[in-house]
Amino acid sequence: MEDMAKKDTEASFEEMGLAQFISALASIIVVTVNTLLIYVIRRFSIYEHHETQTKMNVSVAIKLTIARFLNSSVILVLTNKDTTTWFDGGDLVYDATILIGLMTFQQPFMYLFNIPGWIKWVKIKIEQGKGEDCTLTQREANVMCEGPPIDVANNVANFMNLVMTCVFYCPIIPQAIPLACLGCFLNYWVFKFMLLRKHKMPDMFSELMAAFFANFMPWIILTWAIAYFVFLSKIRNDYEALFQSTVKDLQGLTPEEAKEYIVTTAIENSPMIALGFVIFCLILPIRTCISKCVDEDEALQNHKEYLDLVTTFPTDYDKENPLTIKTGHMRLIEIQIKKAEEDGDEETVKMLKGQKEQVGSQNMLQQMQQ
């Protein structure tokens, strides 16, 4: 009998281990699909013909956030309908915990590892090993040595999906909130390091990207309220028979003692109260009132024109265009001379005029050679 019980226990442990392995594999597949979604969403957004690069990235980011959230959160709940097994090993809670852990740690560390950067490093070493036999042009060498471009839409979507997924599951996984805080901390420092140390100069965007997702953040609370309502309602309905039998078993206890074992009316109504409160806060025109309180004239005082900032740009269109590079260089020197004269910096004016004469003589020499 003991041998049979031992074999049954070992078999049950093997089945549980297999279920947990399959659940972990499913979570890894979800993360992989989330990574590949960027290519599909970006392809669709290109066909929308947006007016600016900022609008296209906003479109990609919001579509990618919704698609990844549905893939990470909603699909897991739909495929695990039996509430009585949610807290078993290898079921919903286990799947979601593995998924949140992967999103918290795997995404920022893979971003920090920078696989495209290592591939470029290998290519650079191969070309350096060729020595004089290297046939790269200067432009190809520059492209090879520059850092990877920063994908703003993908980074924003990853961050928003992490926060939304953790908030969605926190009613049944309390550890999701600390993991969300840790994930935000890791993402912040990894993004900052990559931006300052690895990426090439990012594209210039308007404030639309930041403003759009700042306004989107309050709606994440609605996600929490809906999840709280759905999870607690399903648990209450599916465990109704167990609750009723528990109440019968507690007939001999005092009301104070029984409250420790049964779900009270206040707990039953709390999801509806939370959902109603969140919807009420979203309906209130709080942001509109704040915007009305802002002094538009004061905000316009910070407005600067092109000539005020042109000397701070790393490059300009006419300096990059081969057909206008000469005139573009002369134009920027003249702007610098004018700014130095307004500031009364005679030494800088003298240096810039000498540089202007040198550039002009080089242009004349090149024209004569042609």
Automatic annotation (TrEMBL):
The chain crosses the membrane at residues 20-40, 60-80, 92-113, 166-190, 210-231. This is CSC1/OSCA1-like 7TM region domain-containing protein. GO terms for cellular component: plasma membrane. GO terms for molecular function: calcium-activated cation channel activity. Keywords: Membrane, Transmembrane, Transmembrane helix. The keyword Transmembrane applies. InterPro entries: Csc1-like. The keyword Membrane applies. It comes from the Eukaryota.
